[in-house]
Amino acid sequence: TYGKERVHELIGKLKGEFISQNVIDNDPFSDEFEELIFPPYSIKEIGGAKIGIIGQSFPFTSTANPKKFTKGWSFALRHESLQEYVDMLRKEKKVDCIVVLSHDGFSVDQELAKKVKGVDFILSGHTHDPSPEPIIVNDTVIIISGSHGKYISRLDLDIKDKKVVDYSFKLMPIASHLIPADKAGEDLIAKWYKPYDKELNEALGTTKGLLYKRDTFYSTFDSLIGMAIQDEMKCDINFN
């Protein structure tokens, strides 16, 4: 977690837009009290079609992190305001398609698709799940494309008479071992790691099996950490 100042600093360097309809100023002494922190949506004209994109930030940010990092900002699901933006983009801005760019998490986005009407696609993040096929909830198509640059997704839309009549989706894994490393990036990482070479290369033990980490899925390294904590704390059960 970076904190509000660092977030604004990074967004200032972003070569793109940062949008979110569910982060609000809740500092009663602020001039922006109860106003949105970020623009809620963006409209893109692509291939002759008008696409409305609404941002949805992780709604539990303030409870999943130390309060000091988000003090003065309010995070929530805010399905009611999301529905208002969907309706406004349809009726006033005359968009042909509505996409929600979401960091809710896959299970929460499934509920979003049930409660908010008129969303064509949800590009779902946070839980890091990849799925080669879209998941359809009511009339909303949910796309989940993994994380950490492991995949690239392609979504092609066929739009006629102000609505999506067909689409195609492809999830493509990135063969990172075939892509040449970026020299500047490698040098920077080596520079950061250099002061800790001794600690990072100290042998702490030997395992008979392979220890690996697989993001949100089960992994042997997660299992080892859980068992080590369980042994140290003398408890009967650990939740990974």
Features of the shown structure:
alpha/beta, Purple Acid Phosphatase, chain A, domain 2, 2 domains, 10 strands, Metallo-depent_PP-like, Sulfur oxidation protein SoxB, hydrolase activity
How do the SSEs run, as a string of H and E? HEEEHEHEHEEEEEHHH
Tally of extended strands? 10
Tell me the count of domains. 2
CATH architecture of the largest domain: 4-Layer Sandwich
Radius of gyration: 22 Å
How widely separated are the two ends? 21 Å
Strand content: 15-25%
Per CATH, the superfamily of the largest domain is Metallo-dependent phosphatases
CATH class of the largest domain: Alpha Beta
Helix content: 25-40%
Largest sheet: 6 strands, mixed
Task: Outline the structure in words.
This is Sulfur oxidation protein SoxB. InterPro entries: 5_nucleotidase/apyrase (IPR006179), Calcineurin-like_PHP (IPR004843), Metallo-depent_PP-like (IPR029052). It holds the Pfam family Metallophos. The structure is a single chain. 28% of the residues lie in helices and 25% in strands. By secondary structure, the protein is of the alpha/beta class. The protein has 2 domains: 4-173, 4-Layer Sandwich (Purple Acid Phosphatase, chain A, domain 2), CATH 3.60.21; 180-233, no CATH class. It has a 6-stranded mixed sheet, with helices on one face. The protein has a two-stranded antiparallel sheet with strand order 1-4. Strands 9-10 form a two-stranded antiparallel sheet. The two termini are 21 Å apart. The mean pLDDT is 93.
